[in-house]
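--- STAGE predict ---
source: upstream dedup step, 1 unique chain passed
mode: sequence only
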Amino acid sequence: MIHALRNGFCRSTSSSRARTRCCHSTLSFPRSCNCTSNICRRGSVGLKVSLIASRECDIYIHPSPRTKLWDTCAPQAILEEAGGKLTDLFGREIQYDRRDVQNWDGVVASNGASHAAAIKHLRPLLAEFGRVPHFSSSLAA
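--- STAGE serialize ---
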């Protein structure tokens, strides 16, 4: 499970073609939500989110604070136009009007339909690892 909370992954359950083209080999989250999936590695946040927008993947979870606002801004716009959703790990909208450009609370991108369930399933894992929402006085512009 620690591995799952350190590495982003994308999950596909749609077609066999999509299963061979999806993102990462961390099985802790899918097992915790009782779903079966195929997971494999892919590149940037933008690429992973584009796989969701094109319906080749269902969800991408990046729990690390290593992404920045410029990594998620354009992919979020494209994903939302395709009917998907992108938030932090706690289900909060990412705020782009701030000085601190780090996505401290990770990223969850989904097809929209699975988003609430993903956030719900992440809560106990986040609590288990002591993850709480990041608050900083430098967030305001």
